[in-house]
Specification:
The chain is mostly helical and 77 residues long. Helix content is 66%, strand content 5%.
């Protein structure tokens, strides 16, 4: 469960890899947390999907992209 702010809605999918709430207030955060606690299948699915989603942003995946960008920048100079 996370607030629906910044880049998070572009990375996480509500109901699949996270439960997004509109703001970070206690009222809006309580319902998704209760759903996760009451539904072990949902909790497991969110966990597996979130892990798969964020692995795309691991250092092992990001570093080669940054290297390519800097190499392309150096060539363009």
């Amino acid at each position: 469960m996370t607030a629906n702010v910044g880049e998070l809605p572009y990375i996480l999918v509500d109901g699949s890899s996270a439960l997004l709430c509109e703001d970070g207030t206690a009222d809006t955060e309580a319902d998704p947390e209760i759903r996760i606690l009451q539904d072990p299948k949902l909790a497991g699915m969110l966990s597996v999907n979130a892990r798969s989603t964020v692995e795309v942003y691991s250092w092992e995946n990001i570093l080669p992209r940054w290297k390519r960008i800097f190499e392309e920048f150096e060539v363009a100079k």
